[in-house]
Amino acid sequence: MAEPLEPGRIVTGGAPGETARDAVLARIRAVAVPPPAAIPRDYLTSLSPDVDILERFAERVADYRALVHRATSGNLAATVAEALKGRGARSLVIPAGLPADWLIGLGPGIERQSDDPPLTYGQLDAIDAVITGCAVAIAETGTIVLDAGPGQGRRALSLLPDRHVCVVRAEQVVGEVAEALARLDPHRPLTWISGPSATSDIELDRVEGVHGPRNLDVVIVG
Amino acid sequence: MSGSPAGREPLPTFAGTPPFPEAARTALADEQLRRNLRHATTTIRTKRGRAVAERPDWEALRLAGAAIKDDVIARWPELLTQLEANVTAAGGIVHWARDGAEANAIVAGIVRAAGATEVVKVKSMTTQEIELNEALAREGIEAWETDLAELIVQLGRDLPSHILVPAIHRNRDEIRDIFRAEMGAAGRPAPADLSNEPRELAEAARLHLREKFLRAKVAISGANFAIAETGTVMVVESEGNGRMCLTLPETLVTVMGIEKLLPTWRDLEVFLQLLPRSSTAERMNPYTSMWTGVTPGDGPQAFHLVLLDNGRTDVLLDEVGRQALRCIKCSACLNVCPVYERVGGRAYGSPYPGPIGAILTPQLRGIARHPVDEQTASLPYASSLCGACFEVCPVRIDIPEVLIQLRTQVVRQHGWRARTFGEEPVAMRALSTAFANPGRLDLAERVAGGAGRVVGRRGRIGRLPLPGLLGAWFRRRDLPAPARTSFRRWWRSRSSRGES
Ligand code: SF4
Question: pTM (2 decimals)?
Fold first, then answer.
């Protein structure tokens, strides 16, 4: 790998020997800015107890034009197989640590590939679909969050294949963004996904699917 | 010849944009631009209204957002050095840049050291501000924009016109023509039978850019937020090109304005509500990526964070104006601005258009320390002070208040125009009251006209669609009016279409 540049070594103007870092910090310190009296946090951090959280999650995910499947632990494997078949997937990449029983419903028509040892990006790009779990899901915003943990794999796995099936267990679903943040570890790479990739750049016409997976299936278990 | 993408003429920049009134006149004459803008701003405005109405705690979120951002600049050195320490501890390398030239040199150095001659980029206004692409081109490095709209702008050798939808001035036929004519020279060509269907155009962009993502060694991004407490940096996006840039290349360089800080991880519970609902008017944008330094075996193995000042510390100098540092670049203020809706983004002469551009650009260019050029000095007048921008701003920036403050500075610094500008705040206030109640516009026009400036002859722009001082600018220069609707009629139809 290339040698990184030493931070703060390029100097244009300023006192001799003064780094950009010193200069910027000195400029800020020259002005005393009073802090706000307090930070009011009177916003909502959880959903009202009357809300059926799974119902809300399913509805909000569907609003993004992702496909939502409700399953029980009994028919999860069949639901996963159905979802993949419905999207016409012929090959599937499986992250390390994915529960093997999620896949027992798959027929011989789907070629399975493990990411251990890691596939190249070119290989991943040629695979139709990926199946993952998630770290947490948010009902209010219809969001799933991946943290590259077991059953999710590195970030490229859920990015290059065009179809993503994500299995969400009921106990992973929280009501609000605040609750999700409290459960997440910021030191892991996090990907928040709310529906399939989309653009409205052409005359504001919404098109689902530019670079990320164009098809998102969310299977809610429980 | 510089090595601009596709190796032809250099890309256009905002440098040399004429003062706002002249640039606005050109834009006003462009019917398609105005039609597209009206459609865009009306649609997004209405959607945003719904997304915001869904949160009973919206006002509480705004108050929290404003206070958190004020806390950032009150503790700026402490938080910046905390961020630096945490990014470094997580395996990232932090650079500081006083200005654009420094930042560009740092980035070019990193790209060269990585042995790359091209980079992929995810939309970043900060790198537009410092004209990074042009600087890289001078070093023989090609920078490819990967956002669909930015790709359209780049291939069309054009300038962006809106923060959120930068290619909104282009219609589908033009986009098809640009793709057909230009993609081949830049990489994978568009299919010969490409139609003007948005779905097909998006597919062409997907294939064209996928090739670039898979071979790129270096990516350059901006950042929406960075968390001092954890060293986490994040990018909020829709298309997935951000994820591609942040995941696939070996080296990632993030150029971040030093105001993009948040103190704590928890603060995201506020900003991940405020930003998507204000920006794309969604409950949540399709993708948000967060990373802390480098993760072995996952994503870029070299991460550089460039902390950019470039005038931000000058913004600090003005007690009133410094609230502009709260801005999270959501573009909500653009979509409600009657002036922006008429003239579009490019008339503002910087990557920051609309109301936020009118207050941020002059301050970034040092208006608090020294006189600024005429184009910059004209920006605080690109407003009717109607107040709609403040109402929608998720971090409660009182844009009209800052505009008035900046106008005062312009008057103080430039003896010139003092006659035109001097009494203006009074006239403008009268007009802004009238905006809230269009029935009173007659009176306001008389008041303003009595001050000898706003009302022009029939058929002259001073009378016609642009409110206030902007109108006076036109009249002063005695330009023919480009549009025939009366301002009031236009305002009424706009208000009834919009969210309120
Ligand atoms: S000024 Fe406020 S409304 Fe305008 S872009 Fe910035 S945060 Fe958004």
Answer: 0.86
| CB of B62 shorter than 6 A to ligand 1 | no
Whole-angstrom Cα distance, residue A222 to residue A54?
9
- Indicate the helix (H) or strand (E) that contains A111: strand A111-114
Assign domain A53-221 one CATH number from 3.40.50.10420, 3.30.450.20, 3.30.70.930, 3.40.50.1970.
3.40.50.10420
Which atom of ligand 1 approaches the CA of B356 most closely? Answer: 1
Pick B20-312's CATH classification: 3.40.50.10420, 3.30.420.270, 3.40.50.1970, 3.40.50.300: 3.40.50.10420
Minimal C-alpha gap between A37 and chain B (Å): 8
Rounded distance between C-alpha atoms, residue B500 and residue B495, angstroms: 6
ipTM (interface predicted TM): 0.93
Successive 10-residue mean pLDDT values, chain B, 500 residues: 42 71 71 80 91 96 98 97 98 98 98 97 92 95 91 84 76 90 91 90 91 95 98 95 97 98 98 96 96 97 98 95 96 91 82 92 92 88 91 97 91 59 42 39 33 29 35 34 34 38
B389 CA: nearest ligand 1 atom: 3
